[in-house]
Amino acid sequence: MKSLIQAVVIATVLAAPVASFAQSNQPVTRAQVRAELIQLEKAGYQPTRSDPYYPADIQAAEARVAAQNGTAQPAVSSYGGVANGSSDSGRAVSANGTKSIYFGN
User: Fold this and answer.
1) Which of 22, 61, 95, 100 gives 45 a disulfide partner, CB atoms 3.0 to 4.6 angstroms apart?
2) Euclidean distance between CA atoms 58 and 61, whole angstroms
3) How far apart are CA 37 and CA 19, in angstroms?
4) What tens digit of pLDDT does each residue of 39-92 get?
5) Rounded to an integer, what distance in angstroms lies between the CA atom of residue 44 and that of residue 56?
6) Taking the domains of the chain in order of start, what are their residue ranges?
7) Which residues contact residue 40 at a Cβ distance below 8 angstroms, ignoring those fewer than 6 apart?
8) pLDDT at position 34, please?
């Protein structure tokens, strides 16, 4: 019986952090979105600028805001890491010379 109580206590202690990091299912209000946008603009993000490198500037502003708030996220996100290399298979493509339309017949 003592081991059962001990197992329940250990399971409760291990499950407590899961509940503390759970996100609320409440939708974000318009005021919260506006406040976040103002905070991002103060951090250097310009939503009206036409930028071909869009994700980089907003991510940099979000990182600055997170650093100011003390809630910096780890460098690795839930999207996975960056591939270190790549490989190709097959053979190199060679240009075919000009051939007659009757070639091979």
Assistant:
1) 61
2) 5
3) 29
4) 988 888 888 877 776 788 888 888 988 888 776 555 545 566 666 767 677 777
5) 12
6) 25-70
7) 58, 61, 62, 65
8) 92
